[in-house]
Amino acid sequence: MKLFFSPLSPFARKVRIVAFEKTLIDEVELFQSERHNRPTELGPINPLLKVPTLIDNNGNSLFDSPVICEYLDSLTSKPVLFPKKGMSRWAALRQQALGDGGMDDAVKLAYEAGRPSGSRSPYWLGRWRQAVESTLNALEREAPSFTDKLTIGPIAIGCFLGFLDQSRIIGDWRGYRENLAVWFEEFGQRPSMQETEYKK
Ligand SMILES: N[C@@H](CCC(=O)N[C@@H](CS)C(=O)NCC(=O)O)C(=O)O
Asked: What's the whole-model pTM score?
């Protein structure tokens, strides 16, 4: 399999973590995709022109991290990262939506903040920041009920928090979010998190 990724993309990190947890990492060949190359490089395989994009062993392309992650989950039996049915499935998918949604807003905030100072929109900077803070507040309230069971939910949340640390886009998020900070401290020790951490 081939994975088009960028070292800074939290969504691509999510896919790499899943590959690691499913012991598939050695079967995934990584191709670093630079932003300026994406239209030509990814156009034929992903109309969204985004990383992560996966090419499976039959040459089929898969995109959007939830789809790629569920595909990888289907390839080996354990651990089950996408519970098949019942409330545990909806709880995992809901957590994934929180993590992915937080990443979406944090990435947009980083893009907007990275524009030349005269072109930045105060409205959009405020809007994306508000959404990131609101997601963090929800996660702080929910963190005491997080269980040790590994699913796609905590993986997505871990990638969201990891992106905030790596990009420093909103400064110190831990200050008054102790439950979440304690949870992330422990989750961040997983080998899959350590192995995929962005290093300058
Ligand atoms: N919903 C997508 C989001 C992927 C995404 O936003 N990727 C960003 C990088 S973090 C991207 O490739 N943006 C286009 C670009 O940077 O050219 C997923 O879950 O995979």
From this structure: 0.97
